[in-house]
Amino acid sequence: MKRRDFLMASVAAGALIAAAPRAFAQELTILGSVPSLGFPFFVHMLNQIKVEAEAQGVNIIESDGQNSAPKQTADIEAAIVQGVNAIVISPLDVNALAPAIEQAVNAGIPVVTIDRRVDGVAGILAHVGADNVKGGEAEAQAMVDAFPNGAKLFHLQGQPGAGPAIDRNLGVHNVLDPLKDKYQIVFEQTANFARAEGLSVTEAGLAANGKPDAIICANDDMALGAAEACVAAGFTDVKIYGFDALPEALVAVRDGLLAGTVEQFPGEQSRTAVRIAVAFAKDGTAPAETLVLLTPVVIGKDNLDTAERIGETK
C-alpha cells in the first residue's frame, strides 16, 4: 500500500473510532418503573411506557415495584449505578420514594413522574398525571346527579400515602362535605386499591351499616370487589363508582354492575412522560410545562366509546 493510501486509511479508521462513542451515546436507556404489576392499571401504564420508548428508539429497563417501597427504591438505585439516561416513574409512596428520586436527580438523571406526584424533591424534570382532585369531584358529582334527593354512602379510599388516593379523597369530600345533610357517608375506610380488600371491607360495611344507596371507590379494583360483595348480599341495585376505566370495569359499566368509572387516560400520561424524558436526555430540550395534568371524566353507559381502553373490552 502506498504511503498516501495508508495515511488516508488510517485517518478514516481514526474517524470511525472517534465517532463510535458519539454514536453509542445516542443509544439512550431509560428506567420505566411502576408500583406493582399486580394491578392491571400499572400493567397498562408500563406497556405504554414501552410502546413510546420503542417509538422514540430508546432502550427500556422495566421495573415492577411489587407493591414494595424498598423494592422500587432498590430499582432506582440500580438504575443510577447503571447510568440510565432518564427515569420515568410512578412511585408507590410519594414520601418513601422521595430519597431515591432525589438521589437520581442529584446524579444528573432527569426524572419524570407519572400518576403520582412527588412534591418534596427539587429538580424533578416534570410531572404528568391526571388532576385527581377533579377526578374525585367528578366521581362524587356523578353520584349526586344519580340521587338528587340524597343518599346513604360507603366510601372506599385508596392506599394511604399514595398521591392519587389523597387527591381523590379530597375531591370526593370537596363535593360531599357541603351536602352532608343530604349525602351521608356512613362507612369510610381504606381498601388499599386492592380488589380482595374491596370485597372484605364492603362486607364489613354491609354487616355494620346495612345496604347503602351508593359506593364511591378510589379505583376500579376496589369497586369490582365492592360489587362482588353487594351481589353476594343480594343488593344488586347499589350504584357503585370506580376510578381508572380498566377494561373489566368498562364491561361492568356496560352490563350494569358498575354505575360508572373515571377515565384518567393513563396511556397518554405514560407516553407523554416518555416523550418529555427522552427529549431532555437527547439534547437538553426542557418541557414547555413542568406540570401536565389531564382532566378526568366519568364514563357511563352513555359515553363508553370515549374510554381510552374500550378496544380491549370483550
Give the helix/strand class. Answer: alpha/beta
The counted number of beta strands is: 12
**SSE order in H/E notation?**
HEHEHEHEEHEHEHEHEHEHEE
Unreliable residue runs: 1-25
Side-by-side strand order of the widest sheet: 2-1-3-4-5-11
Q: Biggest β-sheet: count, sense, barrel?
A: 6 strands, parallel
**Range of helix content:** 40-55%
Give the end-to-end Cα distance, rounded to a whole number of Å.
70 Å
> What fraction strand?
15-25%
Question: How many DSSP H or I helices?
Answer: 10
**Cα shape:** elongated
Radius of gyration: 24 Å
Features:
314 residues; alpha/beta; six-stranded mixed β-sheet; 10 helices; 19% strand; elongated
Description:
This protein has 314 residues and is an alpha/beta fold. The protein is 47% helix and 19% strand. The protein contains 10 helices and 12 strands. It has helices spanning 3-25, 40-56, 69-82, 98-106, 132-146, 163-176, 195-209, 220-233, 247-255, 266-283; strands spanning 29-34, 59-64, 86-89, 111-114, 126-130, 151-157, 183-190, 214-217, 239-243, 260-263, 291-294, 297-299. The strands form 2 sheets. It has a 6-stranded parallel sheet, with helices on both faces. α2 links the parallel β1 and β2. α5 runs parallel beside α6. It is elongated, with a radius of gyration of 24 Å. Mean pLDDT is 91; it is low at 1-25.
